[in-house]
Structures are given as C-alpha cells and as structure tokens.
Design brief:
There is one protein chain. The chain is mainly alpha-helical and about 80 residues long. Helix content is about 35%, strand content about 5%. It has a two-stranded parallel sheet. The protein is globular and about 45 Å long.
C-alpha cells in the first residue's frame, strides 16, 4: 500500500468514517465477534493482498486500535460523549 502511495491508517479509519464507533454495551453478551464493517474490511484487505484477515480478526483489530469502543457502559474506559 505504501509503495502505491496509500496511507494504511486512512484506509482503515475510512471504514468507521474517521471517528470511533461507540457501542451501547450494557453487558458482554451483546458484544459481537464480527460486524458488517469488519466483513467489508476483511474483503478489502484481502483484495490488497493481506492474509489472515478474516472478519473476526478484523473486528478484534478494530477494538484494539480504538475504531470500536466495546467497553461496558459503566467502565471507566468508556468514551463519553457529552
């Protein structure tokens, strides 16, 4: 991607419109393993030649990089929009 003048960060953040997706998580049973966005990301990355980037792996990546906030609603780490 870099050799083609593409910015990986911009590419990845485009899947969530450039800002973190903050999910309503009252308890852990509502946290998905994959979403439509992670499926789209997986397909796009595979087209670019990436391997081992399934939809569940992409969702975990999104969580770990802050693209998705799945902290419990009462967690002190939860992003608060006020």
């Amino acid at each position: 991607m870099q050799q083609n003048g593409e910015d990986f960060s911009q590419f990845i953040w485009a899947f969530v419109g450039g800002k973190p997706q903050i999910n309503n998580v009252p308890d852990l049973t509502v946290v998905p393993a994959k979403t439509a966005i992670s499926t789209a990301m997986s397909k796009a990355l595979k087209k670019k030649g990436f391997a081992f980037v399934g939809e569940t792996t992409c969702y975990a990546f999104m969580q770990s990089m802050g693209l998705v906030d799945d902290h419990l609603n009462d967690c002190f780490c939860k992003i608060r929009l006020s």
